[in-house]
Design brief:
Elements lengths: L26 H25 L1 H8 L5 H14 L2 H12 L6 H15 L25 E2 L5 E2 L1
Antiparallel strand pairs: 1-2
């Protein structure tokens, strides 16, 4: 059996602290393994947090285009095309106006004026009376009682 390992006779007498004697545990290596693995995990967390930013923004504000933003985010994640992520971010910021509701209201109003019940009518017209047609040469009266020529 041999005693404790002696340094090489060629080595300088003042070795730095990170030089590990033979047969000993390399503490600096173990610390660096923990630091590198922790850095990789933290980098992944930061990447995925930034990557999901447009989807979280659209979800918080209850945007109509939430599904489109989510699909663009997934496309950007799996294809590594940054243009999809930028498009998702822009869609999350932009508030697309709701065009369908005013059009439905216009259609319902036209049905009411015409006195017809559509099959897909949104309003129950059963208790309302259709407006009466007024000849063009007679003055009309609105609901407030004002007379229009």
């Amino acid at each position: 059996m041999t005693g404790p390992a002696s340094p090489n006779p060629i080595a300088t007498p003042h070795l730095p602290f990170f030089i590990t004697p033979p047969g000993q545990t390399d503490v600096l290596f173990n610390i660096m393994v923990v630091v590198v693995v922790g850095s990789i995990v933290l980098t992944g967390i930061v990447f995925l947090t930034i990557h999901s930013l447009p989807e979280r923004m659209a979800h918080k504000s209850k945007k109509i285009q939430f599904d489109i933003v989510a699909v663009l985010g997934l496309l950007a994640l799996f294809t590594h095309e940054h243009v999809f992520w930028v498009a998702a971010l822009l869609l999350a910021f932009i508030d697309i106006p709701d065009f369908l509701t005013p059009v439905k209201r216009i259609a319902t109003s036209v049905e009411t004026i015409a006195g017809q019940e559509g099959a897909g009518s949104l309003v129950d017209h059963s208790d309302s009376n259709p407006p009466k047609a007024v000849p063009a040469d007679q003055p009309r009266q609105d609901q407030k009682g004002a007379v229009h020529a």
